[in-house]
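Model: You mentioned two targets. I'll fold them one after the other.
Researcher: Yes, keep them separate.
Model: Target one:
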Amino acid sequence: MASGVRNGGGGLGSRTSSKMDRQQGSTATPKAAAGKPRLSASASGGGAYRRTSSGPLPAAGGGGGGRASSDSGVSSRVRVAVRLRPRNAEEQAADADFADCVELQPELKRLKLRKNNWESDTFEFDEVLTEFSSQKRVYEVVAKPVVESVLEGYNGTVMAYGQTGTGKTFTLGRLGDEDTAARGIMVRAMEDILADITPETDTISLSYLQLYMEMIQDLLDPVNDNIAIVEDPRTGDVSLPGATVVEVRDQKSFMDLLRIGEAHRVAANTKMNTESSRSHAILMVNVRRAVKGRNEMDVSMSGENGHSSSMMGSLRPPIVRKSKLVVVDLAGSERIDKSGSEGHTLEEAKSINLSLSSLGKCINALAESSAHVPVRDSKLTRLLKDSFGGTARTSLVVTIGPSPKHRGETTSTIMFGQRAMKVQNMVKLKEEFDYKSLCRRLDIELDKLIAENERQRKYFDDEVERITTEAQCRIVEAERECKIALENEKMKYHQEYLDSIKILEEKWKVHQQSPKKEVKETESTSNGDVHDLLQNEKMLRQSAEDESNDLRNQLLHWKKMEATATAEVVKLRRMLDTEASQKDKFEEEIAVLKSQLMQLSLDADETRMSLDTGDGPGKIFPGLDSLMSHTRSSQPREQSNGPKAPVAKLFEQVGLQKILSLLESEEPDVRVHAVKVVANLAAEEANQEKIVESGGLTSLLMLLRSSEDETIRRVAAGAIANLAMNETNQDLIMAQGGVTLLSMTASDAEDPQTLRMVAGAIANLCGNDKLQARLRGEGGIKALLGMVKCGHPDVLAQVARGIANFAKCESRAATQGNKVGRSLLVDDGALPWIVKNANNEAAPIRRHIELALCHLAQHEVNAKDIVSEGALWELVRISRDCSREDIRMLAYRTLTSSPTLQSEMRRLRIEC
């Protein structure tokens, strides 16, 4: 059979589980507590593929990076989950008379492999996933803890192993174009990564490869069909410098890259699988994240005049975390006689089985703590060197089929998973100094200082020129006015003098012509008039002289003002000289800063050299000597056939229909016991679908509507809360008026425990994106806010959880463009209560309220209400003091990305 090109995903059926998956505590990603250092310890030498030791992580990024954390880590076992594929059409027809070769016990995390009708072997795994498990649940229990570790700065690997045709590609690489619920681990992992990063400071890049016939080929560039593996001789780390690396900004571009890679992946039609993968597919996602709020210090600079001026600057470079997520879709192992491979397909099968055999040998050697691990037997084992026995957090899902015809292949797959569970890795946090960023910041600061100095220099030059020009204009104007005033006064007095002379001459002529008698009579009078005229003339002359003196004084005053202006010009020139000397001092201080930067670079080089020569990090970072010790814990394995719970026994002996019929009994005690049994059964995932199909949900809602017994209403509300954890059941609860009944129960109930159950049910419904408008329209939000009057901490915790779920769904809908306008929570008046309880003493209440407030503030249309209700101060407090780092960073991003909040913070002079 000739090999072909893969056209789409296939394998596992589309039937899914009904219960919303909850992350198990044992799979949680190790996170550093608030205010405590990250995991780090001194490194021990040795190869990265050993069980108890690992080499140091290489510093990436070229000349711009340096080591910021030590190389030691903590021990982490490889986690293994087993997934059962449902029977296909061929197996249903051929094996109809035969039972499955395996029996799953997911609640006990056990698997029984039947040898015959009487004997079976029992195996335990970290997770046991039935044929009804949804793609979402598989992602939550297998890959999500690894993805969260990668976002925290650790390397991670997710791998699928199993017989051909058992659903490996369906589990990992399904794109979900037709049904979003069928999306595989690759798509869901990238969704979580893109949702958590900050595009302004973080970067995501990926490579997509396939290992075909022992040749590494680039699925994004098919021409690049023989990529070499490069191994660091010092650390032993492997890399693929020839592979195509593409930076990813959004989910759409990632999906386009996956489609390109899937189109180039080699597949063939065999008897076991119509689209059998003939190569191992490897998706490498590189995450680079900036660590904010660390290594900041103040630098003070003083001027020549003695006044201290403060300049903020970071002399220590910022820290970045680099991690890598590797998703490996292994080609399925097959037997030639069953697959019918021949020709070129036969050669492909031989190559696949040879590489899988080499991987199995390495797993065996690591599980048995062998002194030699045959890593170099295959390129596959060299590529997975960091995943098994290395520094990555690894999660393996082994896929099996139910057919008894393939019991041998199923047994081999199960034993591979059992051996893989014994492999221990040393998980390490990788942090580096970003010297390039520090250089850019110092260059910007230098440019700012130079520009400021030039601006001040230009300002002083312009000021000196302006004052000089103004003084010259004033002097010219004063001289012109004085000259005009003197000319006017001179002309005025000259005219008056001429007029007086003329009058005297006329009077003298008249006097000469008049008779002498009259002259004698009037002589005395004329002499008196002449005397008066002479006196007036003297007074006028004296006045003119006084005014002339005043004008001379004004001229002297203007000359003094000119001298003063000249003195000011001289003073300004001296100030300019002082600024020039200050500029020289600034330039000297800038040179000192440059030398300090060079010294830091030299210190980083010496640090790296000391690490290379084995001095150990203790001499460089003495504060990191006291670190977390490597702890190992082992849990006792449970017995394969333990006693069943009393409720389970009652369920098997009586039957579900009989138990549900007792809910309608006329005897109150019988109804109480029956509803308690149903509530206990509803707590188990396996029973929920049967309860709903048998009418149990309808009966529970009828009890809420009709019963007056507080106990019955409390237990019924708790059972509905358990059923409301499933998305399908949520639609049924809404369709049957469940929110209205729960709201009525909340308004009538006084018992805090009843209110807690009702609030928990509504809180679960608040987490469904599709039910937001209906839930609010039927009074769900009003009911939640009404229950806060109880004041009981457990009730308030459930109310806070519901509001946080509702706000998160609104924020996601607004981000995706599915919602516009103000938040429904704000419209219903929830914001004042959120602000009031944002700093509640109870940690569960406070954590949910802080998360709800951050999600509300993310939407710009709510920003004005946030400011008017006083929530801005709470957001600032959360960004500084919240004990959870993810909420603290979400509050910080919200404050820095909202223009309205930024404007209000600047007005109030609040620094984030």
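Model: Target two:
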Amino acid sequence: MADPKNLFLITKTHIFLTSLFFISLFLLSSSLLPVISPSLIVSSFTSRLLTAANFFTSPSSASDTATLYSVSPIRIRVKVNNESKKIDHAAKELTSCDIFDGSWVSDDTETVYSPGYCPFVEDKFNCFKNGRPDSGFLRYRWQPHGCSIPRFNGKKMLKILRGKRLVFVGDSLNRNMWESLVCSLRSALKDKNRVSKVSWRKSNLGNEGFYGFRFKDFECSVDFIKSPFLVQESEVLDGYGKRKETLKLDVIQGSIKKIYKNADIIVFNTGHWWTHQKTYEGKDYYQEGNKVYEKLEVKEAYTKALHTWADWVDSSINSTRTRVFFVGYSSSHFRKGAWNAGGQCDGETRPKQNKTYTGGYPWMMKVVESVISDMKTPVFYMNITKMTWYRTDGHPSVYRQPVETRASSPATGMFQDCSHWCLPGIPDSWNQLLYATLLVSRSSLPYKSLGNLL
């Protein structure tokens, strides 16, 4: 016989999710219908429901091993201009499942761009240039449970981006994704010289972590802004007149403010830098106003920072013009120690074979999902934690450096990179999911209306 207490909690859960469903539907239909397509409404709606559902765990699973939940709004119809329209088959299929819940399957299809041939891949991500001998880790593709995703098509993606600006803002994992996308788009060009670096010399933005590429024939740019915390790094004078670093949890990073007005798509992330010793210990580092905390737990600091980011997005971003994405935590795979304490991942050549996800769920992503669920701006949450957890084989490891630098033997005590990813590699799949989302959300709009959509 079922425990009455558990029955009460289950009923309460169902009431909560049902209420959330109708409240989200009402808010989205009233605020977004006049300006965007039915596909985008469903995609935004699905994103919000997935965010809330992923954050909501069952009463008995409050630990870090909480299940990754999903909500599937199947057979949704919406009205635009008082006319009922059907969502096309591809859009309907993609919005009826959680595209981040799946598995890696074997696939011998060639990579979108050839290993070692994209000049925009940094050496530290260019595993093939640095002598990685195996390529089997490239023979897998991400397959969501319950739906299929289109393969990345560079020509179509460039058409979606025509006349627009896509900006990645965040840490080096977002840079990983940015370089992947630039290379994927470049591969679609007949004349590879029609893409060029953006010069920031006149504006001095190059000194503030701005990088960009312009695709001349499509009059679009794909840029990256370094902002590992999204909030402002700063300095204060201590009691002895010496400067010490602080992190202003209540101030958005200044360089972000310079780009948002002419950005059509912004892809944010922050995560890995919050695991470093200084941020994790939180001693005399976190600042609000003029107050520097003697001690502040990293979770509380991260939550404050994310609320600062969310408040800024809600007050500054025009969601009828600019699409906002947030990329979740990318899994690391250090064995036998941390990144700076002998951690290793070399020798891995295949994904984890576990069919059941047992990696737990980073506390940071629970914070992200909680914050996003309270925002008025639609945010497309790219929950990549699970899909990256399987890929122990995709990191640069010792191949973050060329042979002449690391010596011939991997066992020389050098730092291994088990956080970032080889390119080509795993970030290509993130961009495939980004492409699928953009493709679906523009599917029912005439091309001339894309300026309003993106």
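Researcher: Noted. Anything on target two?
Model: The first helix runs from residue 4 to 32.
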